[in-house]
């Protein structure tokens, strides 16, 4: 087949041409290999291994419960405060790991990217999968704590939990695609991510009740706060695990509207991140 005829062939594809996130599904086997690699190397050489997936959130919970719950007295205003606190910690931990993994996905695989071509989007997507797998032990631990406190499962709780997880992963992937692609040429991007994660716990109702923001912040600031995708996700986790234990507790008014706005922001972030990633991915090998 001549070069001209090849170009006119509908099945011909320019080598190295990326389809972005849509192209990931055509390389499911490679995605599985990268996912297995990420899971296997996470605790390679560690004595405790997967036990760390339980130790870290447990240590975080203990520290925040003692300092924020007991010493600062937040536990006195929130029924079943341990479940409330732990649900928020688990949600923020998923966001933190997913964003860190996706931001460093390209630079961590520099040796592979410089040698052969495979769709670059495979790396951040597999990083999201690794974060989700390591989130599962924490979710199981949260479920055990909630059951011990008398929690009963219902379809609304399952839906709320799934929506919360999907919102976190979508938002984290969008940010990760953006900062991860910029991080290849400018390592300052990783520092911006560290700043985002430093504020993540405090910018959502994890250590305190959302009513504190409603009662003390200006209305416009409260609305911005509630439209934060992480605030919506944390509230979804609270609705799934904490609210059934404390049914008389107040829920944010207009939560459905805030959830729709938060989801729109998360999807918009994913679209922007994907566009920036596709624009910059052609220079990854040269900049690494």
TrEMBL record:
Q: Which family does it belong to?
A: Belongs to the ABC-2 integral membrane protein family.
Instruction: Give the location in the cell.
Output: Cell inner membrane; Cell membrane
Tell me what this protein is called: Transport permease protein
Please report the organism this UniProt entry assigns to the protein: Leucobacter chromiireducens subsp. chromiireducens
Record-linked InterPro entries: ABC2_TM, ABC2_TM_bact-type
The ABC transmembrane type-2 domain extends over: 48-280
Whether Cell membrane counts among this entry's keywords is yes
Residue spans crossing the bilayer: 47-68, 80-100, 121-148, 154-180, 192-210, 255-277
Question: What keywords are assigned to this protein?
Answer: Cell inner membrane, Cell membrane, Membrane, Transmembrane, Transmembrane helix, Transport
How this chain sits in the membrane, per its record, is: Multi-pass membrane protein
Q: Write down the superkingdom of origin.
A: Bacteria
């Amino acid at each position: 087949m001549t070069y001209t005829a090849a170009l006119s062939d509908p099945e011909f594809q320019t080598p190295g041409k990326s389809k972005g996130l849509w192209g990931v599904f055509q390389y499911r086997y490679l995605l599985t290999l990268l996912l297995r690699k990420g899971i296997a190397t996470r605790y390679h050489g560690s004595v405790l291994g997967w036990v760390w997936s339980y130790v870290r959130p447990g240590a975080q919970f203990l520290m925040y419960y003692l300092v924020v719950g007991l010493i600062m007295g937040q536990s006195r205003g929130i029924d079943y405060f341990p479940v409330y606190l732990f649900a928020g910690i688990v949600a923020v931990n998923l966001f933190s790991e997913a964003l860190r993994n996706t931001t460093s996905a390209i630079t961590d695989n520099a040796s592979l990217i410089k040698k052969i071509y495979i769709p670059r989007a495979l790396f951040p997507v597999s990083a999201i999968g690794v974060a989700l797998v390591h989130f599962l032990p924490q979710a199981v631990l949260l479920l055990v704590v909630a059951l011990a406190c008398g929690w009963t499962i219902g379809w609304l709780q399952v839906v709320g939990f799934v929506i919360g997880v999907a919102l976190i992963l979508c938002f984290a992937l969008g940010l990760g695609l953006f900062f991860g692609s910029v991080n290849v040429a400018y390592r300052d991007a990783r520092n911006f991510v560290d700043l985002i994660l430093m504020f993540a716990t405090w910018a959502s109702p994890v250590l305190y009740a959302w009513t504190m923001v409603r009662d003390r912040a200006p209305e416009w600031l409260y609305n911005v706060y509630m439209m934060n995708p992480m605030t919506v996700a944390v509230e979804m986790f609270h609705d799934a695990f904490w609210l059934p234990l404390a049914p008389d507790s107040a829920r944010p008014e207009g939560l459905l509207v805030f959830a729709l706005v938060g989801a729109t922001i998360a999807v918009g972030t994913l679209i922007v991140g994907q566009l920036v990633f596709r624009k910059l991915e052609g220079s990854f090998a040269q900049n690494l």
